[in-house]
Design goal:
It is a single chain. By secondary structure, the chain is an alpha+beta fold. It has two domains: 1-25 and 61-128, no CATH class; 129-163. The protein has helices spanning 104-130, 133-160, 168-176, and strands at 10-24, 33-37, 43-47, 61-82, 85-90, 93-96, 100-101. The strands form two sheets. It has a five-stranded antiparallel beta sheet with strand order 6-5-4-1-7. A two-stranded antiparallel sheet has the order 2-3. A hairpin with a 2-residue loop joins strand 4 and strand 5 (85-90). It is rod-shaped. Zinc ion binds at residues 25, 27-28, 32, 48, 50-51, 58, 60.
Length: 179
Amino acid sequence: MTQSFNIGDKAFRARAGQETIWVTCPECLGSGRLCVILGDDSEVSIACVCCERGYEGSPGSIQSYAFRTGADVGIITAIEMREGKLRYSFNGCSYDDGYVFATEAEAIDRCVDLIQEHETEEKRRLSYKEKQHKTWAWHVSYWRGEIRRAKKTIEGAEARLAVAPKNKADQKEADNVPS
Ligand SMILES: [Zn+2]
């Protein structure tokens, strides 16, 4: 490991960071719900699975990251070895030597690599999101099953409150009993 800088040297740091932003959900377009057409052409709507956030429900927007890059210039104020890596202190923070360069052009070149790494990671993350399509059908069939079970429970309960007399003769007899 060669030390490229000394304390007091001017250097450029490749800056690459993520900033949290909210974007309209690509699946429900902000409505927070998805319409599903069933085999009999009837429609049901379910809370959007893509932007679902636990107890918050489906707000219609998803958290994403804006990737920002640039080169910061500064003066090296300290040099240290940490976990086998050379680090330079720079503008109050410490950076791995892979991020610190002698020229702005080199720092920007490094940013280009960082953007590519970020895009690869983002693609991986989005393909994970795409896999969630499979669960839409699951949600629909689950809740429809719950409705069927609940209807059975209601039917059973209603039947218990509407017991008909065993036969008409019994009913007549009951009606004729003087009060
Ligand atoms: Zn959504």
